[in-house]
Amino acid sequence: MRQDARENRERILAAAEAVFGEYGAAGSTEEVARRAAVSIATVFRHFPTKEELIEAALLRHFEQLTDLAHALVADADPAVAWRALIRTMIETGATKLTLVSLVADRDEFPAGAVAASNRLKSVVGEVLRRGQEAGAVRPSVTVEEVYLLIRGLAQASATTRTPPDTLARAVDVVLTGLSRPGRSAPTPA
Amino acid sequence: MRQDARENRERILAAAEAVFGEYGAAGSTEEVARRAAVSIATVFRHFPTKEELIEAALLRHFEQLTDLAHALVADADPAVAWRALIRTMIETGATKLTLVSLVADRDEFPAGAVAASNRLKSVVGEVLRRGQEAGAVRPSVTVEEVYLLIRGLAQASATTRTPPDTLARAVDVVLTGLSRPGRSAPTPA
Amino acid sequence: MRQDARENRERILAAAEAVFGEYGAAGSTEEVARRAAVSIATVFRHFPTKEELIEAALLRHFEQLTDLAHALVADADPAVAWRALIRTMIETGATKLTLVSLVADRDEFPAGAVAASNRLKSVVGEVLRRGQEAGAVRPSVTVEEVYLLIRGLAQASATTRTPPDTLARAVDVVLTGLSRPGRSAPTPA
Amino acid sequence: MRQDARENRERILAAAEAVFGEYGAAGSTEEVARRAAVSIATVFRHFPTKEELIEAALLRHFEQLTDLAHALVADADPAVAWRALIRTMIETGATKLTLVSLVADRDEFPAGAVAASNRLKSVVGEVLRRGQEAGAVRPSVTVEEVYLLIRGLAQASATTRTPPDTLARAVDVVLTGLSRPGRSAPTPA
DNA sequence: TATGAATGAGTGTTCATTCAT
DNA sequence: GATGAATGAACACTCATTCAT
Q: What element of type H or E holds B153?
């Protein structure tokens, strides 16, 4: 691929993340093209379908989160790492995670995105396991409900104007509900 | 209104609830008409605007929930009532609550739906207060984060195929996070 | 026909004249029904087609004008009668004559309306002939161009907001153009 | 703009002039597309709104007439120029001038079309003035009634099947009515 | 006979996608 | 490889007309 093509691809993906994060699936491909300052035909040359465009944006997002999770795994305190990961996934994912629902229910979930999603999930699972081993998280908790809770808060706060402190309190509720009984989750500064 | 018209109206509302619950605002009025087995013109005779159709469906849903909440208020045990309400709102609301976000951010939230929504919220608030007085719910909890958590789980489980037990575990996490420390929420049968 | 039916018919015709006069053919049958305070089905029972409704309204208008022309024929001064007829047809017809174009170009011009139109035309022709015999109108003038001029001014002033004095001056121009050379048309008070 | 696009634009405008001239504002954009042999989406790409399409057609027509009027101004004989202008405006404008009323009463008359319309009116005014100075036209005549008469005949003859000689005689009547007393308007060959 | 309700065939408009340059 | 233009299929909505009550 030529260099200008690669640059275009990157600009388009960034624009897609912004547009679909803002308007959900209702966001138009034309608008993506406009923000990326390319012709719409260029968008379609890179991503032959609106769906593929969304998936590519998702993939990018998953990979960024995976990197972040990896960094947190290296953190000294598993309990701190755990809480930070949950918080970050909800907050940074807020605008973008809405995208998941746009492709998730299709039968043939795209190979690339599903792989990235699995990679992310396994790292999250690892942070979870460490939290459990450290006695900070209930042993019965599985990644599945954690994901559901994260996605829920991300979507809900993304689709309505939620005051930050309301979201913060909701996150605390979740963290408390996940934490080992007797150890309440300390609220961050 | 004639009887056949009332029947149509009811069928249309049910169809609208299903369609918009499934596809969000992207659901088409045509599809609603198809599922209700009426002409699209009939849909528009009953609800002159797509928005009004969505709002009417919302209103219906709010009122049903309000009735249910009222019934639960009359229940003997506040703690049981509280858990039942949360569970029911998430489960029955799953498909439908997604609709809230579709109209919630408009400036002129329609009188009917907003009133119904407020009525519901106040009853939920009452059930919450009773749960707190009975020592079953943390005193610091407010309706706002409860709503956010409910909406989150409802939307998230509605927009992806979630196994029932995953949803159940997530609900338990939330209920535990909301309950008085030391009193874990007993899982139902 | 029952009496209430006849009353309805009359109210519908009046409403039709108003509505189509205001909006032209774009006026909706529903609006006519609304102004006549009857159901739309009643409108269609009386006039099985929108076209037939328009034609009936036309016919009514033609007949009223014919009556008026007859009265003018009886007038003592042919020249005065002539000018009065032209003026009245343009002015009263302003709002309504637009209707003519709505049906005029169809092949099968409706029997009733065409008859009424012909009756009117023949009376206008008579007034014209008398004016010519009295030396007030050019002998070469025929009813055809007179009709075209009348319709033109009526339509043009009906479809745009025309100041009364502009219309009056235009009518004077026409009257002058029609009158015997050497005898300018005296402007009325 | 690419060349094929420019060609399409021109074909669309021509089609619009024909269609709206025939049916008035009731003419459908689909019909325009059909006559221009393009997809309806192409029509909307060029003119994002039916209104803008009508306006563009109007503007084109006004500009053509203005050019013609300018050419006539340069003509040696003001009386001849005057009569030729009136005749041409009525005849060529027949099908098209109907459009004026469709947009004229809107508050925000579109800048382009209104400017073009004003330019045309001022040139017509100039030809009128020259005719008056040459003693061919009554001094009391203003552009307003001239316009009303022109529009009237154009509309009336456009909306009904008028035999050419009837229209010609009507035009003569108008020209005579406008001309200086004692000087009848010579009929053209 | 009159009505409220239902309908089919449009209308203007948008958008994901393809084609010619 | 990138672009501007074109397109078909849909969408929300309207209206003349018909049907059941």
A: helix B143-159
Q: Please, are residues A81 and A136 in contact by the beta-carbon 8 Å criterion?
A: no
Residue closest to sugar C1' of E18 by CA? A41
- Predicted confidence at residue C99, as pLDDT, reads 61
Q: Is the Cβ pair D170, C162 closer than 8 Å?
A: no
For chain B, the maximum distance between any two Cα atoms, rounded to a whole number of angstroms, is 58
Query: Per residue in B41-98, pLDDT tens?
Result: 999 999 999 989 998 988 888 888 899 889 888 877 999 999 999 998 888 765 555 5
Measured distance CA(A134)–CA(A128) in Å, rounded: 10
Contacts by C103-109, CB closer than 8 A, 24 or more apart: C103/C51, C103/C54, C103/C55, C103/C58, C104/D159, C104/D160, C104/D161, C105/D159, C105/D160, C105/D161, C106/C51
Instruction: Tell me if D176 and C176 make a contact (CB, 8 A cut-off).
Output: yes
Looking at residues B110-129, what average pLDDT do you find? 83
Chain A contact probe: residue of B167, B173, B183, B187 with most A CBs at under 10 A = B173
Closest-CA residue of A relative to B172 is A177
Instruction: Please enumerate in sequence order all residues whose Cβ is within 8 A of that of C149, keeping only pairs 6 or more positions apart, or say none.
Output: C174, D152, D153, D156, D170, D173, D174
Question: CB of D95 within 8 A of CB of D40?
Answer: no
Q: Which element (helix H / strand E) includes C47?
A: none
* Paired tokens of D163: 């035999």
Interface list for A 7-46 with B (CB within 8 A): 24-26
CB burial of D82-93 (b: ≥16 within 10 Å; e: otherwise) equals: bbbbbbebbbeb
Residues 8-37/B with CB < 7 A to strand F: 27-31
Whether the CB of C29 is less than 7 Å away from nucleic strand F comes out as yes
- Protein B116 CA to nucleic acid E13 C1', in Å? 34
Calculate mean pLDDT across residues B107-133: 81
**In this predicted model, what pLDDT tens digit does every residue of D89-147 receive, in sequence order?**
888 765 555 565 555 445 555 567 777 878 888 999 999 999 999 999 999 999 999 99
pTM of the full structure: 0.79
pLDDT for B3: 85
CA–CA distance from D9 to each of B88, C185, D12, D32, D84 (Å)? 59, 50, 5, 12, 31
User: Do the Cβ atoms of A105 and B157 come within 8 Å?
Assistant: no
Q: For B17-46, how does the pLDDT look when each residue is reduced to its tens digit (9 = 90+)?
A: 889 877 878 899 999 999 999 999 999 999
Tell me A137's DSSP state: B
Go through chain C and tell me how many residues it has.
189
Residues of chain D with C-beta less than 8 angstroms from the C-beta of C106: none
Chain C residues with CB under 8 Å of D27 CB are none
* pLDDT score, position A189: 41
- C104–D contact, CB cutoff 8 A: yes
For chain C, report the end-to-end CA distance as a whole number of angstroms: 47
- Asked if the C-beta of C105 comes within 8 angstroms of chain D's C-beta atoms, the answer is yes
User: Tokens 């037990």 identify what position?
Assistant: B165
Spatial distance between the Cα atoms of D166 and D172, rounded to a whole number of angstroms: 10
